[in-house]
Design a protein that fits this description.
This protein is mostly helical. The protein is built from 10 helices and no strands. The protein has one domain. It starts with a helix and ends with a helix.
C-alpha cells in the first residue's frame, strides 16, 4: 500500500497542478497521511528551482494549517480517532513519552520535533490531547515546518540534483544540524 501511495504522489508531482497537490499532501500529512510532503517538494523544486521559495511557503503554510486538524483530533477526539491514528502508525509509546517533554520544554519541543522527520501528526495530535496553548502551538509549528521545508528547498535550489540523494538519505542529519544551529543561535543571543 505504501508503494502505491508513493507512486501516486510521484505522479502528482509531475501534474500541472502539482503545487496544489503539494498543499493537499502537506495538509493531510499533518494529521493522518503516511508519507511526508518532502517527496513532492523535492521534485517540484528540482523541476522549477526559481520557484523554490513559493514551493516551500505553500508546503509550510499547508502543513501548519493541517496541524490544526491534528490538534482538533487530539483535543476533541483523542479517545477515538486520535488513538486509532496513533495505532496505525505505531506511535502510542512515543505519544506517552511526548507528554513529559511538552510539560518541561513547551514550544521548544514542538519546534525541535516538528523540524525533524518524525511524524508531525504525533506532534499535532499530542498537542491537542495535552491542550497545549493554541497560539504557542501555531508559532512553534510555523517555525518548525518553515525550518524543515525552507532548508530542504534552499539546498535543492542552491545545489540542484546532486544534493537530492544527500537530503533524501540524510534528512534526519540535515534537520538535526538545522535545529542545533537554531537553538544554539537562541542561546548565544540570550547569553550575550
Amino acid at each position: 500500500m505504501l508503494q502505491k501511495t508513493y507512486d501516486w504522489m510521484m505522479e502528482k508531482a509531475a501534474h500541472r497542478h502539482a503545487i496544489w497537490w503539494l498543499a493537499l499532501i502537506s495538509f493531510v500529512e499533518s494529521s493522518f497521511f503516511p508519507i511526508p510532503p518532502d517527496l513532492m517538494l523535492i521534485p517540484l523544486v528540482l523541476a522549477a528551482p526559481t520557484k523554490w521559495f513559493r514551493v516551500a511557503l505553500v508546503c509550510t503554510l499547508s502543513s501548519v494549517a493541517g496541524g490544526y486538524l491534528g490538534y482538533a483530533i487530539g483535543y476533541f477526539f483523542m479517545d477515538t480517532v486520535g488513538v486509532a491514528i496513533l495505532d496505525v502508525f505505531h506511535l502510542n509509546e512515543k505519544f506517552q513519552a511526548f507528554k513529559p517533554l511538552v510539560d518541561q520544554y513547551g514550544a521548544w519541543v514542538i519546534i525541535v520535533k516538528g523540524a525533524t522527520p518524525i511524524p508531525y501528526k504525533l506532534i499535532t495530535i499530542s498537542a491537542g490531547a495535552f491542550h497545549f496553548d493554541l497560539a504557542q502551538f501555531t508559532i512553534a509549528s510555523f517555525v518548525a515546518r518553515a525550518m524543515r521545508f525552507f532548508l530542504v528547498a534552499a539546498l535543492l535550489w542552491k545545489f540542484g540534483p546532486p544534493i537530492r540523494d544527500f537530503v533524501e538519505k540524510r534528512l534526519t542529519l540535515v534537520m538535526t544540524v538545522g535545529v542545533v544551529l537554531l537553538v544554539g543561535g537562541f542561546l548565544v543571543v540570550k547569553l550575550v
